[in-house]
Each structure stands twice: as structure tokens, then as C-alpha cells.
């Protein structure tokens, strides 16, 4: 029997397993498909909330801790696995921001290097942007990471770790219980027992928790994105305009995203979104119209109220814990939220006050 069993091997599940295994614990990861192939793969990889001043303080606390840890994590994973997550620390430009005063006040409050810049700075920094932009918010410390490569590195790290057992293509269909304790899970291939069970199933977490008579306010929110097969130098850093963004990769590819759609568990793409994303990309960088659209895809975010994740013990059920509901910021918040849960599970002093993320008082009986 494992000490810890984690349902869901996305970035959250993989990072949680890595932290617990580093403490010497035995961990089993169970994934319904392939590791890090759902929201962890589908997102853009910006290591910051979009317009961070518009989020609650609970999001900021997790994000600031995570941002500083990604440099070390990327280096460790490259050395450990040979897979480079491609962390790019080039900053983020946010064009024509309406609530600049709020942004500047947030930066002062949290001591962040955020400034208002003019057209001269914009075009000196990104000369290929469309003409006519007059002002922007500049955040020089914001990084981006190639999230599919991050997922590959974390998966390989798990496979190399003797304390971790990774079970893919094994969908969890329910929990096993003994009295008021959850002591394992049921899959189509049999049962797995553990001292402690962690549910990190993203948008699918609510379906499982419902079997225990609890309602988790996490719903799938579809996001569609596309990627242009451009060349290095067309755009060098994350640029945002009217809530959407372009993200460059080291090989020249440029991602554009994303939509926000409440359509259930439908991961299909649409022509309307394709046209809208193409329009966004070329309004920011007109030159992208000269390059091939290589891929258009969709993923499902685990949408939660105000985007504040559920991290901690499930009330009424001993041995069951949550780490889910990160909405648009799963990758952004992953290092901090997984460290917080690991601290709670290993009875260490938590790096962040856990109360705001606790499932207690936030779940309802069905």
C-alpha cells in the first residue's frame, strides 16, 4: 500500500508527487490518459496571472511564491531529465490597459516592478507590433515556460524516481472507503489502496467528489488556442491586448490565446474561435499573417469561484485531500499550491497561510 495516492497526473499531480517523494514517501500517481496532456498541455505557459492586479490576494500570494521558484525548478528538471522546459524570462507587455491606476497601486502594494511605458518603449522593445499603440504596462520579471515540455520533464522525473509509481491509461471511477475514511480508489483495472488520497483531477474532480455526496464548485471552461509556425525574432516576449495574448517560443513559434467558453466537457474547436484568434494575433503582430497556422486546439480549465483553488483536507472524509480548481492559473500557481499541500500532508509549517484555500466551508452536500 502506498503512503500517498494522487488522482490526476497533470502538472499539479506530478509536482505534488515529486515533492512528497523527495521527502522519502512512497507515492502512486493514477492518470486517466497520458500525463500532463489535458489543461497542463493546452495552456500558454505564462508564469503570471493575466492582469494580476484584478485577482484576489489569495491568488497573488501563490503566484509570487511560484514565480520565484520556477527558475530553480526548470534548472533542476533539465539536469535531472535532459528535457528543457524552456523558461523564458523576457517580461510581459500589456497594451492599452484601461485600469492603469489599479495596476500601479497593486505594484506599489506588493513591491512588484510594474511600470507604465510609452510608444517609444513599446516599439523599441517589440518593433514588429502593429503601429498606433501609445501606452502599455510593462512587467519585466514575468516569464513564460513551454508547458508541454514542462509536462514531459515532470513525467520523466516521476518515472526516474524509485519512490513514485506512475499508472497511466487508468481512469479512476470511484473511491474505496472504510467508515468515514477514504482509503483508496477504484479503477477499471482494480483497486489501489493508500494511507492518504489526493484528488488533483482538474475539471474532472467534481465528478469524483460527487460520489461522496459533496458538491465541488469546479466546472470545465473551454479555452481554444492556435500556434503560428513563425521564425525567431517576430516577437520576443508575451504581449497582451484586450484580454488576449501572443506568446513566443524559443524556436520562433508564436501561440495566441485564448477563448473562455462554458460548454461542458466539449474539447472540440470552432471556426468562430479560429477566426477570432487569427484576428487577435494579427492585430498585435501583423507579420504573423505571413506564417502558417500550425495547430488549433482546445483544453478544459478547472473553473472555480474567483479562481481560488481548493487545497487541503476534505471535510467529513478522513484521508482525502484536494488540490484543484486553479482555473486559468494552474501552471502559474502549481509550485506554491503543491508545496502548500505537501507541507500540510507532511505536517510541516506551511509556506503560505492555508486557510483561504481550505475546502472546509467551501464544499456543499449534494
TrEMBL record:
Keywords of this entry: Oxidoreductase, Thiamine biosynthesis
Keyword Transferase attributed: no
UniProt xrefs under Pfam families: DAO
Coiled-coil boundaries: none
Domain FAD dependent oxidoreductase: 4-344
Pathway recorded for this protein: Cofactor biosynthesis; thiamine diphosphate biosynthesis
Origin superkingdom: Bacteria
Entry keyword annotation includes Oxidoreductase: yes
NCBIfam families assigned to the protein according to its UniProt record, in alphabetical order: thiamin_ThiO
Name the UniProt record assigns to this protein: Glycine oxidase
Organism, as annotated: Marinobacterium sediminicola
Origin organism lineage: Bacteria, Pseudomonadati, Pseudomonadota, Gammaproteobacteria, Oceanospirillales
Amino acid at each position: 500500500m502506498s503512503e500517498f495516492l494522487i488522482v490526476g497526473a497533470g502538472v499539479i499531480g506530478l509536482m505534488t508527487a515529486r515533492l512528497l517523494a523527495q521527502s522519502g514517501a512512497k507515492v502512486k500517481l493514477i492518470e486517466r490518459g497520458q500525463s500532463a496532456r489535458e489543461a497542463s498541455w493546452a495552456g500558454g505557459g505564462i508564469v503570471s496571472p493575466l492582469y494580476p492586479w484584478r485577482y484576489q490576494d489569495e491568488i497573488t500570494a501563490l503566484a509570487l511564491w511560484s514565480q520565484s521558484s520556477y527558475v530553480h525548478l526548470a534548472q533542476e528538471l533539465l539536469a535531472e531529465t535532459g528535457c528543457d522546459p524552456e523558461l523564458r524570462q523576457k517580461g510581459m507587455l500589456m497594451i492599452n490597459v484601461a485600469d492603469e491606476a489599479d495596476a500601479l497601486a497593486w505594484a506599489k502594494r506588493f513591491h512588484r516592478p510594474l511600470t507604465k511605458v510609452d510608444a517609444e518603449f513599446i516599439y523599441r522593445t517589440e518593433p514588429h507590433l502593429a503601429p498606433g499603440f501609445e501606452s502599455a504596462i510593462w512587467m519585466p520579471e514575468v516569464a513564460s515556460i513551454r508547458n508541454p515540455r514542462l509536462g514531459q520533464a515532470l513525467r520523466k522525473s516521476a518515472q526516474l524516481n524509485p519512490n513514485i509509481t506512475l499508472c497511466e491509461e487508468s481512469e479512476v471511477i470511484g473511491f474505496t472507503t472504510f467508515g468515514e475514511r477514504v482509503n483508496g480508489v477504484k479503477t477499471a483495472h482494480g483497486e489501489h489502496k493508500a494511507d492518504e488520497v489526493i484528488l488533483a483531477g482538474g475539471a474532472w474532480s467534481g465528478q469524483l467528489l460527487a460520489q461522496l455526496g459533496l458538491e465541488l464548485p469546479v466546472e470545465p471552461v473551454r479555452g481554444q488556442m492556435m500556434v503560428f509556425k513563425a521564425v525567431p525574432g517576430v516577437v520576443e516576449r508575451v504581449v497582451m491586448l484586450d484580454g488576449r495574448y501572443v506568446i513566443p517560443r524559443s524556436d520562433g513559434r508564436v501561440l495566441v490565446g485564448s477563448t473562455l467558453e462554458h460548454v461542458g466537457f466539449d474539447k472540440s474547436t470552432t471556426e468562430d474561435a479560429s477566426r477570432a484568434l487569427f484576428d487577435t494575433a494579427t492585430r498585435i503582430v501583423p507579420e504573423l499573417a505571413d506564417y502558417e497556422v500550425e495547430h488549433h486546439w482546445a483544453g478544459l480549465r478547472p473553473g472555480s469561484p474567483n479562481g481560488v483553488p481548493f487545497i487541503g483536507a476534505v471535510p467529513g472524509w478522513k484521508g482525502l485531500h484536494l488540490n484543484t480548481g486553479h482555473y486559468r492559473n494552474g501552471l502559474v500557481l502549481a509550485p506554491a499550491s503543491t508545496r502548500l499541500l505537501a507541507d500540510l500532508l507532511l505536517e510541516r509549517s506551511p509556506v503560505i497561510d492555508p486557510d483561504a484555500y481550505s475546502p472546509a466551508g467551501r464544499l456543499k452536500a449534494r
